[in-house]
Every structure is written in C-alpha cells, then in structure tokens.
C-alpha cells in the first residue's frame, strides 16, 4: 500500500506540515548517535501529532516489540514502565500498515485492549518503521480525546514522519555497526603479531588478508616454557564480527592453556569444550598447532580438521602433515593426538595456511587449487631468500591468478624457514 499524501490543499496547514517534516529531516539526520536519534524521533512525533505521549518500539530478537524510549509532550522520559496499546502496536507491526483509532474506548469495532480502557486512551496513532521492506519497529503516539483526536490527515503526516525515522535509524545503526567493526578490526589486528616469534635458527613470517572488515582466520607464534615454539594457524567458519570474536577467544584460550597444562591435547580439549556450548550449531573451527623443538631440529603437531600444512625439505620434496583429529566446536568429548616428530634441518620450509589461500578463484571461477599452491611454494622456497620474501612471492602468484576479483574468503599464511639448528644460548 503506497503512503497517503499529507498535503491537504489548505495552504496554511500544508506549509506547516512541510516545515515540520523538513525540520524532522534536519534534526533526525543530524543525530550523532542512536540514543539521541530515538529521543528526538519521539519528541518530533509528539510535536507533529499534538499527542500527549509517544514511544518508539523496536523489535527484539524474538520478534516481540519492546519500548526503546517513551516521552510525554513536556519532554519527560516515560520509558520505565510505559504502558501502551499493544493491540494497536502489534497490529501495525504485523500488517506494516499505519493505524489511527479515534474514541478507542467507546467506538464500535475498535480493537480491544485492557490498556486502552485502563489509560482512558481515546486516540491512538501508530505507523510502521520500514526500510527497503525490512521492518524495524513502530512509531506510536496516544492521547485522550480532550487533548487531541487524530484524523486521517494526521495519519498521513505521521506515516511520512515514520518513514524519515526509519531511514535515519537505519543509517545511524549502520554507522554504529561500522564503528564497532572498526574497533574489532583494530583489536584483532593488534592481536596478530606483526613480527612472529622465531625459534632459534629459524626465520618466520606471516600475513593475513580479510575478505571483510574482520575475519575468522588466526595465526600466532610464541615460545613455551619448555623451550619449544608454538606455530599456530586457525580458521573459524564464516566471516565478519562473530567469527572474529571466536578467533580472539581461541587465541586467548590457546595461549593460556599451552603455557599452563601438561600437554597440547589438553589445550585442544579446553578449546573444544568451550566452543561446543557457545558456538552456533552451524559454526566450527579448524586449527593447526606445530611444536618446534628447542633446537629447531624437529617438529611435532596437532591438526583439528585443518587443511594439511606443507613441509618442503632441502632436497626439494614437499610432504603434507596429516590431521590428528576432527574440527573443534561441534562434538563434545573428542580427543586429539600429537603426531611426529619429523626432523627439521637447514633449508627446510614449513607453510601453514587457511583454505582461503587455495580456494581463491579467478574471474572465470577457477580455483587456484592445492596443486598450484604446492608448485608455487616449492618454487619460491627453492629460490632462497627470507621467509618474508617467500611468502610475498606466494601472494604475488595468488594475485596473478585471482586478478581483480574480490576474495571469497579470508586468506592467512605463516611460513617458517630453518636457517640452522642448535640449542638456545
């Protein structure tokens, strides 16, 4: 149903209506934050309609309307304990059509509601807050007949105001979410080590490229109390803020448990037992943890459903390190074993990565693929140079395949090169 015209043909009244709506545009679109916006929206609704009270109702996660703010015509806050005609508000929310009730307590056919009679409401006016077919809530005002009886003209003007409020609220919400994402992105970036810790006799580099503002990928490198070094790459399913929050939680739990429990499997148990009850049913995490010996002469590892890292020997052969257990966050009570050790020596290179690396597509939709990744890794590692140079070469090969096409997934990689072996000084 298209909005009703609020111009009446009465020059004086129409000029007033247009002026009030223009004032609403300036006031609402200039609101610095959501709290200010909802307060101004209700105050403007009361002023424009001549009502005694007004409220902005927003949909809760369960779909039920709740009072975001309520005020009277003097500007007094009524939010706590505000009682209103839920019958009218729910009808507007359900039908997405504005509603006006005149003489609600006595009119034949008026929607029943104990609140209408208890509050002696004789006029109720409400309009849906809708943006691009997405319903946000309801803008609501009411009065007794002695103060104001709403008309069809009031309904048309109120509907126009509700449209402005919906757009302004949507824009403010988007701005707030963008600001929150920027904070999360900054925190996440600060948690990823710019210069990963390198074991004695090794060179380590890492890089992460989110496909949106924040990501569910994770890398880390840190020393353990026994002299070993933990190399970590993980991937939380999904993208954006929820995945990023689980990633940050994983980092905190893993760093704490690897430094405080007897074995790496116990650290994986702690992660899994935390994630199982807290992750959504369709979410999970894959994780690889490599444990480099104190003298960098060997590697043990655990892999919870993660794509196999590649280990290139000095002789040019490339092997993959297999899984040692299933994904995290789906199944309670699972255990993960430690594999290895495999020997490490000068010239060896280890590549840890997330699946976004080999699942990136070109303009025609073709995957870069594991075979291309393996070939590029072997070629770049054979050319020598630092871990950073090898990693940058890999990403250059990836970009050459992808071209200008946006990434479908987060892309993260950590690369270790063994320069020499020997005990720590």
- Secondary-structure content class: alpha+beta
CATH superfamily caption of the largest domain: PPM-type phosphatase domain
Q: Could you give a short account of the major beta sheet?
A: 5 strands, antiparallel
Strand element count: 15
CATH architecture annotation name of the largest domain? 4-Layer Sandwich
What fraction of the residues are assigned to beta strands by DSSP? 15-25%
Helix content: 25-40%
Global outline: elongated
Individual helix count: 9
- H-E order: HHEEHEHEEHEEEHHEEEEEEHHE
Written description of the protein model:
This protein has 425 residues and is of the alpha+beta class. It has two domains: 11-181, Beta-Lactamase, CATH 3.30.450.40; 192-418, PPM-type phosphatase domain (Phosphatase 2c, domain 1, 4-Layer Sandwich). The chain has helices at residues 11-29, 34-49, 86-95, 114-119, 152-191, 240-258, 264-278, 369-382, 387-402, and strands at 53-59, 65-72, 99-102, 123-131, 134-143, 202-209, 217-223, 229-236, 285-292, 298-304, 310-312, 318-320, 339-343, 349-353, 411-418. It is elongated and about 90 Å long. The chain starts with 10 loop residues before the first helix and ends in a 7-residue tail after the last strand.
């Amino acid at each position: 149903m298209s909005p009703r015209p609020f111009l009446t043909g009465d020059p004086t009244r129409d000029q007033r209506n247009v002026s009030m709506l223009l004032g609403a545009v300036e006031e609402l679109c200039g609101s610095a934050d959501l709290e200010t916006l909802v307060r101004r929206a209700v105050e403007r609704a009361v002023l424009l309609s001549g009502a005694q009270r007004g409220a902005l109702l927003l949909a809760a996660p369960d779909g039920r309307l709740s009072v975001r703010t309520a005020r009277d015509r003097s500007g007094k806050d009524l939010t706590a304990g505000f009682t209103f005609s839920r019958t009218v508000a729910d009808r507007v929310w359900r039908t997405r059509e504005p509603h006006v009730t005149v003489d609600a307590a006595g009119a034949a056919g008026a929607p029943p509601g104990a609140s209408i009679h208890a509050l002696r409401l004789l006029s109720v006016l409400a309009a849906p807050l809708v943006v691009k077919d997405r319903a946000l809530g309801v803008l609501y005002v009411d009065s007794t007949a002695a103060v104001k009886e709403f008309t069809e003209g009031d309904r048309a003007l109120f509907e126009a105001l509700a449209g402005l409020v919906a757009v302004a609220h949507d824009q403010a919400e988007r701005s707030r979410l963008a600001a929150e994402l920027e904070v999360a992105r900054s925190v996440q970036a600060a948690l990823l080590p710019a210069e990963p810790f390198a074991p004695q006799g090794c060179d380590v580099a890492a890089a992460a490229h989110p496909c949106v503002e924040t990501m569910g990928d994770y890398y880390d490198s840190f020393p353990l109390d026994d002299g070993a070094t933990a190399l970590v790459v993980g991937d939380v399913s999904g993208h954006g803020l929820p995945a990023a929050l689980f990633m940050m939680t994983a980092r905190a739990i893993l760093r704490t448990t690897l430094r405080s429990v007897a074995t790496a499997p116990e650290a994986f148990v702690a992660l899994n037992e935390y994630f199982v009850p807290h992750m959504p049913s369709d979410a999970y995490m894959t994780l690889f943890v490599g444990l480099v010996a104190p003298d960098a002469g060997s590697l043990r590892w655990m892999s919870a459903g993660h794509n196999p890292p590649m280990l290139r020997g000095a002789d040019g052969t490339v092997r993959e390190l297999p899984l040692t257990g299933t994904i995290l966050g789906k199944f309670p009570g699972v255990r993960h074993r430690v594999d290895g050790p495999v020997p490490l020596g000068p010239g060896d290179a280890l590549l840890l990565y997330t699946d976004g690396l080999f699942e990136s597509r070109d303009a025609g939709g073709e995957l870069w693929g594991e075979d291309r990744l393996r070939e590029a890794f072997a070629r770049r590692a054979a050319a020598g140079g630092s871990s950073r140079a090898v990693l940058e070469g890999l990403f250059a090969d990836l970009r050459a395949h992808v071209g200008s096409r946006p990434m479908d997934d987060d892309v993260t990689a950590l690369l270790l090169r063994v320069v020499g072996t020997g005990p720590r000084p």
